[in-house]
């Protein structure tokens, strides 16, 4: 072939490829409907939808800080830029009021909006695609009967060319596996219910499974641990030595209350998850604990391993980190020191806290900077933030002291960098 | 050990153990009795002061941590003869009952004023969440903050700008 012909052939191929891609990427609009009336749904369906919305954490992303519930606007920082959660109240102009049930289901399962545009996988449709028809009906009934709020989310700011949504069709071809989850007859009903909730609405893997360069969960490393909003989401699989201390019962208590006397407290993005689960049906939370327990490789019924005695190498830590020791005494010991009321109330000693034993200091540093904040109106473990009390160097000194005093593991390297990074990643957008 | 602290724009030399809470040094060594000891656990806000312009619980701030940084207490916002906008507003709304929480409330609110820009009632409620009043004058406290916000307008007041 002459070069000219080669070029022509390549051009033809490119055109055919683009045309093929356009066919895959193009999704039709689904005709708008008049907003359904409350009477179109049964109270039972709406109630079921409310429970499912709680289990799916819809409000966590779709509510701005101090904003109206489900009215959207919350920023989500991703490695690809910042996305803003949309308004999912039934407002006709700015929400989903004109979405038919079919449009809602297509969004949840295929990540396509009513108007045919592709949605970013920040909406975890890679999980929601597993949700049953009946549950999506109930969720639709619940959302469509919420008060309509007029609120338009800010424009996303993504690195080019990711603002071009048709590209998402390619992402889906590669990474989206639609379809339900068939129950495993060899497992208990609770295990199957738990798997359905964890893999579906609960979308636990969105944080606890590592993501590849394209931002998709790596299925071969399911639950091997990920990163969310500047915090480590610990591995839930057998690779996590700390997981061996759990039982299905302690997992259940943790998911319900945010506190485990042997592992510490729910913090960062896990806190609103726990807040939601505190009001979810008990049997559903038990089912989640059962399934996560099996992912961790816990034998059922698990024999709780004895609680190891606390590590406390106060003298050695003070020798190695005198500044950290003084700062700890002034800032932390009121709650975490010997005989402090919090410890006397059965809160875990620092040596039992996963974040102190972890291989990297990210969560310990984030906890010092941001503290632990129960959801608005919720009860739960509390710790004041120290972001403004302490300089970055002082936070690093305290972290180094805590690691030496309460852990037998090697010192965390490059703590100053870790503090700077945690501040950058964890700051509100 | 001897440390030099910058408090309300003036330098003070104090002799204290490095882990002493800033609150104790302010009250016991420097006679700045505005900030109060409430819970000692960072849960009530009565001890709130500013460090480098940001509100912190002084009961949980070791004095060694604030060397070389700017500390501002309620005494730095005005004097009995020359009240600052928040102090005036709290007086006008009679926002104190026992008054124990008020210095902390005012310092917390000052951080909101310093932020500048439009401030809604919801912003005030949210911002003041960390500070508790056990007498129950919360509604008056909110009104006082609102009054001060309105009185200062959109002005982004800065603590340094004050004499």
From TrEMBL, chain A:
Q: Which Gene3D superfamilies would you find in this protein's record? A: Cytochrome c-like domain
Q: What broad class of enzyme is this? A: oxidoreductase
Describe the location of the Cytochrome c domain by residue ranges: 44-147, 189-296, 319-406
Q: What is its EC number?
A: 1.17.2.1
Question: PROSITE patterns recorded for this chain?
Answer: CYTC (PS51007)
Which GO molecular function annotation, any one, does this entry have?
oxidoreductase activity
Keyword list, A-Z: Cell membrane, Heme, Iron, Membrane, Metal-binding, Oxidoreductase, Repeat, Signal
Protein location: Cell membrane
Keyword Metal-binding belongs to the record? yes
Please tell me whether the keyword Glycoprotein is annotated for this protein: no
Q: What is this protein called?
A: Nicotinate dehydrogenase subunit B
Automatic annotation (TrEMBL), chain B:
Gene3D superfamilies, alphabetized = 3.10.20.30, [2Fe-2S]-binding domain
Q: Which Pfam families match?
A: Fer2, Fer2_2
InterPro entries membership? 2Fe-2S-bd, 2Fe-2S-bd_dom_sf, 2Fe-2S_ferredoxin-like_sf, 2Fe-2S_ferredoxin-type, 2Fe2S_fd_BS, Beta-grasp_dom_sf, Diverse_Oxidoreductases
List, for all copies, the residue spans of the domain called 2Fe-2S ferredoxin-type: 1-77
Taxonomic superkingdom: Bacteria
* Keyword annotations of the record: 2Fe-2S, Iron, Iron-sulfur, Metal-binding, Oxidoreductase
The family database entries (PANTHER family) matched by this protein are listed as: BLR6046 PROTEIN, OXIDOREDUCTASE WITH IRON-SULFUR SUBUNIT
Q: What is this protein called?
A: Aerobic-type carbon monoxide dehydrogenase small subunit (CoxS/CutS family)
Q: Which organism is it from?
A: Azospirillum rugosum
């Amino acid at each position: 072939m002459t070069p000219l012909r080669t070029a022509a052939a390549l051009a033809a191929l490119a055109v055919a490829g683009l045309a093929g891609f356009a066919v895959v990427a193009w999704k039709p609009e689904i005709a708008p409907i008049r907003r359904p009336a409350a009477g179109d749904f049964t109270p039972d369906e709406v109630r079921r939808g409310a429970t499912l919305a709680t289990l799916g954490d819809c409000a966590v992303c779709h509510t701005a800080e101090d904003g109206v519930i489900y009215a959207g606007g919350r920023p989500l920082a991703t490695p690809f830029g910042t996305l803003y959660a949309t308004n999912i109240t039934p407002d006709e102009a700015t929400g989903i009021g004109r979405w038919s049930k079919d449009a809602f289901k297509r969004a949840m399962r295929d990540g396509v909006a009513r108007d045919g545009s592709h949605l970013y996988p920040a909406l975890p449709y890679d999980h929601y695609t597993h949700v049953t028809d009946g549950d999506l009906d109930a969720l639709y009934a619940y959302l469509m009967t919420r008060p309509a709020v007029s609120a338009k989310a800010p424009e996303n700011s993504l690195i080019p060319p990711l603002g071009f949504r048709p590209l998402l069709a390619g992402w889906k071809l590669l990474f989206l596996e639609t379809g339900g989850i068939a129950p495993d007859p060899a497992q208990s009903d609770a295990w199957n219910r738990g798997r359905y909730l964890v893999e579906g609405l609960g979308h636990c893997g969105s944080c606890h499974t590592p993501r590849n360069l394209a931002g998709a969960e790596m299925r071969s490393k399911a639950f091997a641990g990920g990163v969310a909003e500047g915090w480590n989401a610990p591995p839930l699989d057998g690779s996590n030595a700390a997981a061996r201390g759990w039982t299905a019962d302690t997992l259940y208590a943790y998911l319900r209350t945010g506190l485990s006397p042997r592992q510490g407290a729910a913090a960062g993005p896990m806190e609103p998850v726990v807040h939601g689960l505190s009001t979810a049906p008990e049997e559903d939370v038990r089912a989640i604990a059962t399934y996560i327990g099996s992912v961790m490789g816990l034998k059922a019924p698990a024999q709780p391993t004895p609680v190891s005695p606390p590590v406390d190498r106060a003298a050695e830590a003070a020798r190695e980190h005198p500044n950290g020791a003084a700062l700890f005494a002034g800032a932390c010991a009121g709650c975490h020191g010997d005989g402090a009321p919090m410890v006397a109330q059965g809160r875990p000693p620092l040596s039992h806290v996963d974040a102190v034993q972890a291989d990297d200091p990210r969560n310990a540093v984030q906890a010092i900077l941001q503290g632990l904040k129960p959801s608005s109106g919720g009860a739960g473990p509390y710790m004041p933030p120290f972001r403004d009390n302490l300089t970055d160097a002082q936070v690093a000194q305290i972290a180094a002291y805590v690691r030496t005093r309460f852990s037998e593991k090697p010192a965390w390297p490059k703590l100053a960098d870790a503090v700077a990074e945690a501040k950058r990643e964890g700051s509100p957008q | 050990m001897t440390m030099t602290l910058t408090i309300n724009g003036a330098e003070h030399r104090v002799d204290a153990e490095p882990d002493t809470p800033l609150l104790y040094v302010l009250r016991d060594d420097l006679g700045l009795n505005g900030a109060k000891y409430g819970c000692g656990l960072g849960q009530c806000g009565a001890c709130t002061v500013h460090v480098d312009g940001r509100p912190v619980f002084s009961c949980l701030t070791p004095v060694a941590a604030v060397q070389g940084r700017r500390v501002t207490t309620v005494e730095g916002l005005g004097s009995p003869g020359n009240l600052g906008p928040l102090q005036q507003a709290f007086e006008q709304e009679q926002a104190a009952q026992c008054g124990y929480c008020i210095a902390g409330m005012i310092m917390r609110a000052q951080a909101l004023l310093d932020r500048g820009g439009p401030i809604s009632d919801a912003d005030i409620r949210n911002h003041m969440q960390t500070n508790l009043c056990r007498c129950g004058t919360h509604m008056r406290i909110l009104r006082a903050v609102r009054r001060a916000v309105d009185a200062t307008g959109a002005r982004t007041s800065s603590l340094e700008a004050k004499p």
